[in-house]
Amino acid sequence: MFVVETVGRKGAFIGGSIGMGIQSLIIALIVKYNPPRAQATGKISSPGAAAITMVYLEAAIYNLSSWGPVAWLYIGEIFPTKIREFGIATGAASQWPYNLFLSQKTPHAIANIGWRTFLMFCIFNWAISVYSRVFLKETKGRNLEEMEFVFGSKETAFDAEVRQRKAEEDALEPEQRFKNVNKTEGLFPCRSRRKIASKWLILSVEPCF
Prior knowledge:
By secondary structure, the chain is mainly α. Helices cover 73% and strands 0% of the residues. The two termini are 51 Å apart. The relative contact order is 0.11.
């Protein structure tokens, strides 16, 4: 949370994508210039140890401060109130088919195109950093009620509800509106009476002190 509230959601996404892209590029270069031997012994070579280290560093970037945790936070913030549950459920459910696809296809990709698989991962990561910079909205310091303003809406769902309620009240007859005012403003009787007196020209209002 400290990282997210300091650099923002976009900063975490962009920085994480660039960092993971760098790790993938390093792995691609290691595998290209130091390919694994067909008859490997039990001893790990120095290039192999370096490649394993890069894999763990990439996983650390993903899981500690980037797309791993921040994506769950982001999808909980960006949807308006009326569709938030559906949006979060859809966003969460969409992750698992992609994880399944990558886990099943990556071994085949490595067997067929070798080090280029990691170069492809590098390009994907850097492409998504550009996507994050251009298309994602920053939500740092915003509460959930402000999300619709962040994404360009002129009014929130709450404002629309208030406007609709006011329009319905304006359509009521004066006597019915008088009753509604007494009900809704019962906590402030003095203010209610003075407001009604000024608006509906009721001359006899008992004083309130």
